[in-house]
Specification:
22% strand, alpha+beta, globular, 44% helix, two-stranded antiparallel ribbon
Length: 212
Amino acid sequence: PQAVRQMVDTAGFERRYGREISPGETGCAVSHLGMCRDMLTKGYRHGLVLEDDTLLSPRLGTVLHGFCQFLETATPTVLLLTALRRYRRRPRRKVSRGLYLVKVDSAWRCHGYMLNRPAAERIAALQSPVTCLPDDWTALSAMAGLEVWGLNHYMIGLSVLSKESSLEEGRLEASARWRIATARRNGKFDMRALKDRFLRAMGFMRRQPHPW
């Protein structure tokens, strides 16, 4: 709908990502923005965000209280409960046996995460109007001044419903066009990939296994 599209800074989005925002991404971003605003209106200190295609670990209920305590800080903090692309070996904080909070280096997806009130305030201010993808945690961290943490063993996966996600369908098509254009513009040399290989070789960064 036109009213939803008006909540997006289309020019700013295109400058950042080199492409138009897809309809699925628009709806997802506006939905998460609305969640942050609702959290602020109702005075919640922290919130748990779950989308309808999530698959929860049975262990999640046993550690939620500890996550809430972790978010009791004035620092704008997001805790991703989903799979990470890369995370740092240090610093880390122990939650329980074998489970640690880790600093996120790279992650996508926004189907399961927690955040505190300061983080909701920062995201709501940055995304009014929407200029970032709702799960571009690297950009949100840098632009909104968020601390983004995750888990060395994620607690929330994706159910079979995710295969029908309109967000992913639109994103894959749009991202494919963007990657082709970027490759033509920059050639095959990928500085980010070179940096990743160096950090992993030095032991500063880890990729997370996805067993489920």
